[in-house]
């Protein structure tokens, strides 16, 4: 079977039979496409363990440990699928272990930097109000960017002051909204969105011509707005999510509450923010404690 056909059928399998999320499917297919571009093999049966080993060696020099771990998971799933369908008789991934991933503390931005970015959005066009609304919503709700761009107008409950969010694994959670953010959403919804929504979309946030806003679109929007504000820190949607979580923790919010707000299925995922807090404590001690100053 040709490689391109095998990947196409694997994509259908992931979507229809396994029910994988759109983001997961896109990541797997991108990783497999990069593998095939490197190998230059037309037929899937031509790929050997030596080919995989060569690509992994190349990947370790060009990608982060987390990226390589994700790629190997994709390759393993693909190899199992090929054997399941009788396309391959041997598992080309059985000789390779997943790389150990070092624990990386979440990166954050300061609330002052976020305020600077928001204050710099002074335009009066619908897209200006929309962009400010999206950024404010992320920092005040901790939403994943994929969750935000898929929000519908009906997900906003102005009476209860909440958002209904569908997260990973199609799990639903309710996010409370503060009065200022809720007012900002309402102003955008009634004053700006009608000018953008030319196609009758049900989505809360839409593009200039009523088209959906993708994750990549918002990455560019946020990055452009941050650069225009003059902040030095590189902004990403996930940094806003991390900042939301660490701010709550620094204000002594309960870890279980943070877990629910972030939509983590396992609290062990949430506990990494305690490490961030400890890192800040150590940094503050080194910077401000008199005994520490005498030692430097």
Provide a short characterization of the protein structure.
The protein is mostly helical.
Unreliable stretches: 292-296
Beta strand count: 3
In CATH, the homologous superfamily of the largest domain goes by the name Intergrase catalytic core
Based on secondary structure, the structural category is mainly alpha
Could you say how many structural domains there are in total? 2
Helix run count: 14
CATH architecture of the largest domain: Orthogonal Bundle
Radius of gyration: 23 Å
Write the layout of secondary structure elements.
Blueprint: H1 3-17, H2 22-39, H3 49-62, H4 65-84, H5 111-120, H6 126-141, H7 145-149, E1 156-157, E2 162-166, E3 172-176, H8 179-196, H9 215-229, H10 237-250, H11 255-262, H12 267-270, H13 272-288, H14 290-295
Helix pairs in contact: 1-2, 2-4, 5-9, 6-8, 6-10, 10-13
Task: Describe the fold and architecture.
This protein is mainly alpha-helical and 296 residues long. It has 2 domains: 3-84, Tyrosine recombinase, N-terminal domain (DNA polymerase, domain 1, Orthogonal Bundle); 111-285, hpI Integrase, Chain A, CATH 1.10.443.10. It is 61% helix and 4% strand. The chain contains 14 helices and 3 strands. It has a 3-stranded antiparallel beta sheet, with no helix packed on it. The longest helix is centred in the N-terminal third of the chain and has 20 residues, at 65-84. One of its GO terms (molecular function) is DNA binding. Residues 104-286 form the Tyr recombinase domain. It comes from Intestinibaculum porci. It is found in: Cytoplasm. Residues 1-83 form the Core-binding (CB) domain.
